[in-house]
Prior knowledge:
mainly alpha, single chain, 2 domains, 5 helices, 3-stranded antiparallel beta sheet
Amino acid sequence: MAPSDAAIAAIGDLVTGEARATTPSMPGAMDPPLQTTLTSLIAEVTSELHQLRLVFENRIDTPFFDIEGAARFLRISPASLEYLSKRERRLPYHVVGRQLVFHRDDLLKFMETRRRPGIDG
Length: 121
């Protein structure tokens, strides 16, 4: 399950200091080293949650990718993907409307053509 916008906003409030932890011994403020540590930790967790959310939102149950999804799959920029497919004709694609659509099998075949032998073979 992806984190909700409210959960991400609440974590962001903690990072920016808009929300304060209060205990009987520390009314309204945190110990500065503790706050620095917590702020750093919360920033890391927020970043990880954001990445996980992107993964879940962009999960595709079809073998077809748009140009952004295919570029992310290949770990290249959309501009590079467009160049490889349109100019160099190294990647087959379909045109649906005005969008380029790539099949997962074609992307995997392309990756196999880019394989280089290792040191031992």
